[in-house]
């Protein structure tokens, strides 16, 4: 059995999928690095290095995501950290979980 496409590791293209998904959920790109650092309600997600590792932090805690972390896991963790545990239909379309109805 092969992994579904949404479970791919974070590579250059995949972190752009995370960025787009978070932006549809109201996250805002950082002024200095809008595609690699996003913020919402005290939570911050950022790409850590060229290998595709990333981090999520809020308040006094942070968690590191190695490059082999599925995109869906990262997005779900970010949404939960910002107090929005539901994944919207628009976010689902960006992640490729369901077909675009248009």
List the main descriptive attributes of the protein structure presented here.
five-stranded antiparallel beta sheet; single chain; 30% helix; disordered N terminus; alpha+beta; 3 helices; 102 residues
How would you sum up this structure, described in words?
Strand 3 and strand 4 form a beta hairpin. With 102 residues, the protein is of the alpha+beta class. It has three helices and five strands, in the order αβββββαα. The N terminus is likely disordered. The N and C termini lie far apart (30 Å). Helix 1 packs antiparallel against helix 3. It has a five-stranded antiparallel sheet with strand order 1-2-3-4-5, covered by helices on one side.
> Could you tell me the radius of gyration in angstroms?
13 Å
Element order, helices and strands? HEEEEEHH
Which structural category do the helix and sheet elements fall into? Answer: alpha+beta
Q: What best-fitting shape do the alpha-carbon axes yield?
A: globular
- Please indicate the percent range of residues in DSSP E strands (runs of 2 or more): 15-25%
Distance from N terminus to C terminus (CA atoms, Å) equals 30 Å
Main sheet: strands, sense, barrel: 5 strands, antiparallel
Strand order of the largest sheet: 1-2-3-4-5
Secondary structure tally, helices: 3
Average pLDDT over all residues: 83
Overall strand count = 5
Low-confidence stretches: 1-8
Helix content: 25-40%
